[in-house]
Design a protein that fits this description.
about 450 residues; alpha/beta; Rossmann fold; seven-stranded mixed β-sheet; disordered C terminus; binds adenosine-5'-diphosphate; binds magnesium ion
Length: about 450
């Protein structure tokens, strides 16, 4: 990672350079604005640390190079820098640790745009016609959309399509999975926080709603949040204003909201788990996505789409689906919906050495809990479960480690390390471990 630094104070520039260097990254230091502007470019810089004396540079850099993350430093108003495009603000004087923390966060972020996503939306089955119609009607509007459907039916891809067909398409699209983040962190993720709001708040951080300013925010699995947070969400949706944790004033934000859920939201409302008023706010335009088993005409077109996608991504030739493979795909119940179909096709593309995929290359039921996994006895440790799964996967592919790693979704190196670990531990363990493993693989 290369970090550009701009501050008129040469002492600060050299201290920051040292810190960046100590983190194993490359600093490019400037105290002159014109030199900085002449040198900055996203091909060589991922992050820029810029003094708030150069607020125009912060703004310009962000406008021209969206992929460069900007950390503002200074003595003025942090919110001014954030508005200008900085993602973090550190008030002077700060300590080395503050900068290290912030750079640490930025280093962990995946580089944007590297993994090209194929956003094509396949909808052939007549039951999807209605959905396509709603998408094209609501996209240009500002109306909130609530997308309901089982897991893996394509709710997220629909949300993205709505955004990219909307007037906000050049604005940000910010998704947050509310089920994946612990409740204690959700509020600061959504609304951001001020430096010092709590232990560990090393720098002002903007939340998802602010990041979505001018664009769309996806509240994925919205039914998973507590009633307390639901009340806060309701206020944000009503007033279009957010309060950063530890902040003194509300901040106006302009966003369109799309929410998804894979639960029966009406049942959650009946049971008092979901606020009625929040439901009405979100459910202005309802979209109900049918499970894949109820739209069989989509199965083969989707399978072909995924064959194409994997071939492109892996740089391998496309394969065709043999008749028996097509029949198996059409017959299967798809409890994991389109996501499971994608996994099945991807696995077949990687494991099958021929130009034609036959039904033997299709391995079903790995994407969702298998009967064996569901019947694991209470008291089984994660470690035992993992070992059991690895052993049974290996035996199902006759010990071929490349295939097993691909099926397990881990690298060959990880698989090798785990097997080494097991073989070392087995010198000390008793036979019960071996017995349990046998049960899993059986
Ligand atoms: N109609 C579709 N056309 C193409 N790909 C799809 C379609 N529906 C789902 N997918 C793909 O299947 C996977 C799961 O879809 P996703 O939108 O994440 O489901 P959900 O949010 O409902 O769990 C994603 O990789 C997505 O790109
Ligand atoms: Mg989803």
């Amino acid at each position: 990672m290369c970090v550009a630094i701009l501050d008129s104070d040469t002492a600060i520039v050299s201290i920051l350079s040292e810190i960046v260097h100590d983190l194993g990254q490359t600093p490019s230091p400037y105290h002159d604005k014109d030199r900085f502007l002449g040198a900055i470019d996203p091909a060589s810089h991922n992050v820029a640390i810029i003094s708030d004396d150069f607020i125009d540079v912060i703004e310009g850099t962000k406008q021209v190079y969206q992929s460069i993350e900007i950390v503002a430093i200074g003595t003025g108003e942090g919110s001014r820098c954030i508005k200008a495009g900085a993602t973090h603000y550190l008030k002077k004087p700060f300590c080395a640790q503050d900068i290290q923390q912030v750079l640490g966060i930025l280093m962990k972020k995946p580089a944007p745009g590297r993994a090209h996503r194929d956003e094509s939306f396949i909808a052939v089955d007549p039951s999807m016609e209605k959905i396509l119609e709603i998408i094209s009607k609501v996209s240009p509007t500002q109306a909130p959309v609530l997308i309901q459907g089982e897991s893996g039916t394509g709710k997220e891809i629909i949300a993205r399509s709505i955004h990219s067909l909307s007037r906000r398409k050049d604005g940000p699209y910010v998704g947050i999975n509310l089920a994946a983040i612990p409740e204690s962190l959700l509020e600061s993720e959504l609304f951001g926080y001020e430096k010092g709001a709590f232990t560990g708040a090393y720098a002002t951080r903007i939340g998802k709603f602010e990041l979505a300013h001018g664009g769309t925010i996806l509240l994925d699995e919205v039914t998973e949040v507590s009633l307390g947070l639901q009340a806060k969400l309701l206020r944000v949706l009503q007033e279009k204003q957010i309060d950063r944790v530890g902040g003194k004033a509300s901040i106006s934000v302009d966003f369109r909201v799309i929410a998804t859920t894979n639960r029966d939201i009406e049942e959650d409302i009946q049971a008092g788990r979901f606020r009625h008023d929040l439901f009405f706010r979100l459910n202005v335009i309802p979209i109900k996505v049918p499970p894949l088993r109820c739209r069989r005409d989509d199965i083969l077109p989707l399978a072909e789409h995924f064959i194409h996608k994997v071939a492109q991504r892996e740089g391998i030739p496309e394969k065709t689906l043999a008749k028996d493979a097509q029949n198996s795909l059409l017959k299967y119940a798809w409890p994991g919906n389109v996501r499971e179909l994608e996994n099945v096709v991807e696995r077949a593309m990687i494991l099958c050495d021929e130009a034609m995929i036959t039904s033997e290359d299709l391995i079903f039921g790995m994407g969702s809990p298998t009967p064996a996994a569901r019947s694991l006895p209470v008291g089984t440790t994660i470690h035992e479960m993992e070992k059991g799964l690895i052993v049974s996967t290996l035996s199902s592919v006759d010990g071929n480690r490349t295939k097993a790693a691909s099926l397990l979704g881990i690298s060959i190196r990880t698989l090798r390390n785990k097997l080494n670990e097991y073989s070392q531990n087995s010198q000390f363990s008793d036979t019960t471990q071996g017995k349990k493993t046998q049960e899993f693989s059986g």
